[in-house]
Description:
alpha/beta, D-Maltodextrin-Binding Protein, domain 2, seven-stranded mixed beta sheet, 9 helices, elongated
Amino acid sequence: MTGVTIALSKGRIFEETAPLLEAAGIVAADDPERSRKLILETNRPDVRLIIVRATDVPTYVEHGAADLGIAGKDVVDEHGGAGLYQPLDLNIARCRMMVAVREGYDYAQKVTQGARLRVATKYVRTAREHFAAKGVHVDLIKLYGSMELAPLVGLADAIVDLVSSGRTLAANQLVAVEEIASVSSRLIVNQAALKLKRARLQPILASFARAVAQSGGVSVA
Ligand code: ADP
Ligand code: MG
């Protein structure tokens, strides 16, 4: 494939990425929310989009099945950045990775006491690194969704999850007690593709950077 393949996920990421793609002169031929196609052609014969699960985006890019990808920092950190070049913070899908507990649960005191905490999360690696750095002993419980439920039914003392408005936490009588990281979507690039397809990729990267700068605040890593 001499053209460029861009991996992204449906929903929030696609919606917020579409204007950036458009600014780079790339418009999808189908709406991924309505089409069942997983490969979307674009107005540019040399660019196609592939629609994958958010957590799978770094895998496609790492293996070179996609040249570029758009994924949350949460997903990129959990995957690990090996083989991935991360040139640009797209400043979209902003939220925070937080530790949350049930209202009334004295997290600070448990930590001070050196208690062993049961932590439920989709982000096992991120959670392990966070608590190890704090010197807190944890038993990690891997979940695939609805983390908010875990403390309510006694599966865990705490969760590690993404929070934006905090409404889901509040609706489940949970409170955020610690911020682990600030999250936004990142452009990720296969390092080999960057060398081999530089002439094709560089203008796309540059348009993304311009579009992000125009939409307010660029941060080039
Ligand atoms: P999935 O259901 O497959 O996890 P989501 O659309 O919920 O997919 O999440 C995709 C990405 O969007 C996440 O990896 C994260 O970077 C970002 N994201 C998730 N939740 C929020 C949120 N509440 N606000 C902003 N961005 C979010
Ligand atoms: Mg979700």
